[in-house]
Recover the amino acids of this structure.
């Protein structure tokens, strides 16, 4: 097991000439546009990362994998690699027919002969593979709410790998890595799987693992799809590059793996081990709660903390890779070094320091110190860049209220006050301006109002994502639409909902544009508050009254709110 066979492993690609021919013939085939996850799966099928699979699983293999982690011929394989499609697409196919598999731009990557088509029992798959039919598990959620209803299976013929424009030199196929190990004479290689930035504890444990196994180290991070909410791979790769310099020269290398993780704990760990064996590694580090999906809907862990280690240990011989268990490293202040937690004999007499992921995120968010013992300054710098403190992040102020309530006036006053501060660009998306520039073809039906607010939400989310301040001032009468926009924006920064609570009677009394009169006369239909609904916000960040209050004062209340939320400096 320790002396790897670094001979090339089978790929599913055809020669360049055959690929050109297949490509032109494939133009006549029915096409399936692959999802991002299927593109990741196809890449690893074609380049041998999923060896011995020769295509997407057929029904017999699928049943074997789901029920007992084995293909129909008995080979160990823990994860269903399936091509899910819509019922409509599946119905139009004849078994034995070839289909073209295209990426999201329409480029043909492969063809597949459809040998199997079936409607899976997804609840059974969830129970057997992921341990529970619970949508709190990201892969179960995907299975029920994203994946198509029907599975197709059959052998794949590879035409070209998916194109990556980022970090090209850092991506290797199994055969490229095998060739690299041959070239540099690495006979024992321990792989470290990760989807998180590496800090000092990781560097210590990987270095120790390599020393223990008398092996070289391969940092093998996943850059395909990881757990929703993870640090994006662009930031992570820059962090990994910084950490690479901390290992003794020529002992360690890094390669990026375009895997779509399922967060399936023990089964996933076995899958990861097989993939690393295929990439020419002899050892594989498995930690506590490897590929854990977080808590289930009852607030409990899906898997036991050492289930993954147990399952890999049970199958390591058969896979042909040796498991190295991941030690939980903690920092011992008195000795100024990291030590495995379970090897510290004098725990009562020393100070053990640790910073959890949650605590790290809090420190980043609030711009607090991240100590040198915890991470490397280059890594912290990358993370601070990516996660600036709230006072430097983008955010959206979303005013809602009746026509004539004073939204636009307060929004304009707020805009100039924020521009006076000058640290972030400010954009005003006022109701009237948006209707002129973005939504000129829309009317005031529920459907059109929703579309209008969605567009505003999209533009505001882009501004927020890029570190600017978006001020929106539409009527936005529907609570569900406001909630959807809030969710979209909160992925990037704060969403501050301000209800301008001027009563409809007061708005009608002011009637600055003369619209209420026309609405009363029936000359304007579906007029909010008169002949159309308005859902009063239940929990806005701020409610402002405008009767007998100066505009300047209203804008000032908003500024105070932003300050109390840490969005602007006090
Ligand atoms: S919505 O519901 O959020 O899409 O509405 P919004 O785009 O903010 O509306 C912008 C302005 O359109 C004028 N207007 C109407 N308002 C409500 N109902 C009807 N039927 C209507 N027809 C025209 C109204 O003056 C809104 O301007 P504001 O700035 O709110 O006074």
């Amino acid at each position: 097991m320790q002396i790897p066979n670094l001979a090339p492993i089978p790929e599913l690609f055809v020669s360049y000439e055959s690929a050109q021919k297949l490509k032109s013939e494939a133009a006549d085939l029915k096409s399936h546009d692959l999802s991002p996850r299927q593109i990741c799966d196809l890449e690893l099928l074609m380049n041998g990362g999923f060896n011995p699979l020769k295509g997407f699983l057929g029904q017999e293999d699928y049943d074997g994998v789901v029920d007992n982690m084995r293909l129909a011929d008995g080979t160990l394989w823990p994860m269903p690699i399936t091509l899910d499609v819509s019922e409509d697409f599946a119905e139009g196919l004849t078994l034995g027919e070839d289909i073209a598999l295209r990426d999201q731009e329409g480029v043909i990557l492969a063809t597949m002969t459809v040998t199997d088509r079936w409607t899976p029992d997804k609840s059974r798959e969830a129970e057997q593979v992921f341990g529970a039919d619970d949508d709190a598990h990201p892969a179960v959620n995907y299975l029920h709410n994203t994946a198509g209803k029907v599975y197709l299976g059959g052998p794949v013929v590879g035409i070209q790998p998916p194109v990556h424009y980022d970090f090209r030199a850092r991506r290797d196929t199994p055969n490229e890595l095998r060739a690299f190990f041959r070239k540099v004479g690495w006979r024992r290689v321990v792989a470290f799987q990760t989807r998180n930035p590496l800090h000092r504890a990781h560097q210590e444990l990987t270095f120790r693992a390599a020393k223990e196994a008398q092996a070289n180290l391969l940092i093998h991070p996943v850059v395909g799809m990881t757990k929703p909410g993870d640090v994006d791979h662009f930031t992570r790769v820059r962090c990994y590059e910084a950490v690479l310099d901390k290992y003794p020269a020529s002992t360690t290398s890094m390669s990026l793996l375009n895997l779509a993780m399922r967060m399936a704990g023990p089964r996933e760990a076995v899958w990861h081990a097989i993939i690393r064996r295929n990439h020419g590694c002899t050892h594989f580090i498995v930690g506590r709660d490897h590929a854990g999906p977080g808590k289930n809907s009852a607030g409990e862990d899906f898997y036991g903390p050492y289930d993954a280690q147990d399952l890999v240990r049970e199958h390591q011989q058969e896979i042909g890779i040796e498991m190295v268990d991941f030690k939980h490293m903690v920092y011992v202040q008195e000795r100024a070094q990291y030590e495995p937690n379970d090897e510290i004999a004098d725990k009562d007499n020393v100070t053990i320091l640790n910073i959890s992921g949650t605590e790290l995120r809090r420190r980043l968010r609030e711009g607090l110190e991240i100590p040198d013992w915890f991470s490397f300054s280059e890594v912290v710098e990358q993370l601070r860049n990516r996660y600036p403190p709230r006072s430097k992040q983008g955010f959206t102020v979303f005013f809602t209220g009746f026509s004539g309530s004073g939204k636009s006036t307060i929004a304009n006053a707020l805009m100039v006050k924020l521009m006076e501060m000058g640290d972030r660009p400010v954009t005003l998306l006022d109701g009237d301006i948006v209707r002129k520039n973005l939504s000129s073809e829309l009317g005031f039906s529920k459907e059109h109002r929703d579309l209008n607010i969605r567009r505003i939400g999209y533009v505001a989310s882009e501004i927020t994502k890029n570190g600017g301040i978006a001020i929106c001032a539409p009527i936005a009468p529907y609570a569900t639409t406001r909630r959807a926009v809030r969710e979209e924006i909160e992925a990037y920064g704060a969403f501050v909902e301000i209800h301008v609570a001027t009563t409809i009677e007061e708005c009608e009394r002011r009637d600055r544009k003369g619209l209420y009169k026309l609405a009363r006369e029936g000359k304007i239909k579906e007029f909010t508050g008169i002949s159309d609904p308005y859902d009063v916000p239940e929990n806005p960040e701020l409610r402002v009254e405008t009767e007998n209050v100066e505009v300047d004062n209203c804008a000032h209340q908003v500024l105070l709110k932003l300050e109390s939320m840490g969005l602007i400096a006090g």
